[in-house]
Amino acid sequence: MSSVPCPLHATPADPRFAIRPMTPRDVDIALDWAATEGWNPGLDDARPFFAADPHGFFVGTWEGAPVGCISAVAYGDAFGFIGLYIVCPQWRGKGFGMRLWNEGMAYLGARNVGLDGVLAQQPNYRKSGFVLAYRNVRYEGVASAHEDHADGATITDARNIPFDRLLDYDTRAFACARPAFLRAWLSQPQEHARALAALDGDAVCGLAVMRRCGTGHKIGPLFADDLSTARALYRALVCVLPGETVFLDVPEINPAAVALAVEHDMQSVFETARMYTRAAPDVPLAHVFGVTTFELG
Predict the structure, then answer these.
(1) Residue partners of 32: CB distance under 8 A and separation at least 6
(2) Where are the alpha helices (DSSP H) in the chain?
(3) If DSSP codes are grouped into helix, strand and coil, which group holds residue 225?
(4) Considering only Cβ atoms within 10 Å of each terminal Cβ, which end of the chain, N or C, has fewer?
(5) What's residue 153's pLDDT?
(6) pLDDT, mean of residues 230-254
């Protein structure tokens, strides 16, 4: 966290506090803060996060030193997502967080905006026009090998599939197309991440990524046409990590996704409120077995 001394009487209007767009280095700092908060980001999140929208990351500074941040990623002209909303502990309660919030929301403008917020903050988000859509539940488990992981599906390295086919599948399971992010997400260093696709004949019927984090590994997205395909992808991912910790962020509104976590002896450890400023996007949540990230949707 920031080691800059915090004046006792700092106020939101103090000219020593300023907001500017993040550089890639600033994103690294923000993710270090997220790790300190216990959010357990991926080791290589910075590059794909920034690729999603290089103009949508903001840092608050005191006399030039970073003290807070927010991401407000614009996915095209209609949809955006708020995340990485952090003010260093010694700088909280001075109004700087609200200035960062207003900056991010102003950048997203008239778009439908989503977020995954801690449950206790729902009243504050409602004041900004957000409405609860459903809850996402983080499940934690231990990876193990399963001889029957294929479950009849053809599982392959996602890099073997033309990108436009993966993008088409991802777009149908997300709120809109996110080509820059997806390309970077699928190409994370192989020593830290795996990206798999499921095929039904020549058709893509599932897509999943697992990445190494400060603690364990997170799976996201886990998109699949049905539970059988989701199970095949999950098992194909974790079978190479027996005994290691894995996390899966599940839309509680999808009972098949909850069943997948439960059948692999995963335990609920955290929940978020998925909220939007307008109606929830028309996403087939029955195909969403794992959220990509709580920071970017």
Answers:
(1) none
(2) 24-36, 46-52, 96-108, 122-127, 163-173, 179-186, 227-238, 255-263
(3) coil
(4) N
(5) 79
(6) 96
On the question of pLDDT at 219 being above 80, the answer is yes
Cα(105)–Cα(116) distance, rounded to whole angstroms?
15
CATH of the domain at 178: 3.40.630.90
Kindly state the tokens that stand for 120. Answer: 């206790």
The phi, psi pair for 100, rounded to 5°, reads -65, -45
| Domain identity same for 144 and 106 | no
Q: Compute φ and ψ for 279, nearest 5 degrees.
A: -60, 145
Q: What is the pLDDT of residues 167-204, one digit of tens each?
A: 999 999 998 999 999 999 999 999 999 999 999 999 99
Is 196 inside any structural domain? yes
What is the number of other CB atoms lying within 10 angstroms of the CB of residue 29?
A: 17
Q: 3: pLDDT confidence band, cut at 50, 70 and 90?
A: low
Strand ranges for the chain from DSSP E: 17-21, 57-62, 65-75, 79-87, 112-118, 131-142, 154-157, 193-200, 203-212, 217-224, 245-251, 267-276, 288-290
- Read off the pLDDT band of 225 (50, 70, 90): very high
Let me know whether 283 and 149 are in one domain. Answer: yes
Q: What was the pLDDT predicted at 85?
A: 97
Residues 146 and 205 in one domain: yes
Q: Is residue 147 over pLDDT 70?
A: no
Check the CA dihedral 69-36-220-254 and report its sign: negative
Same domain, yes or no, for 55 and 177?
Answer: no
Domain boundaries, position 67: 17-110
Q: What is the three-class DSSP state of 215?
A: coil
Tell me the pTM. Answer: 0.94
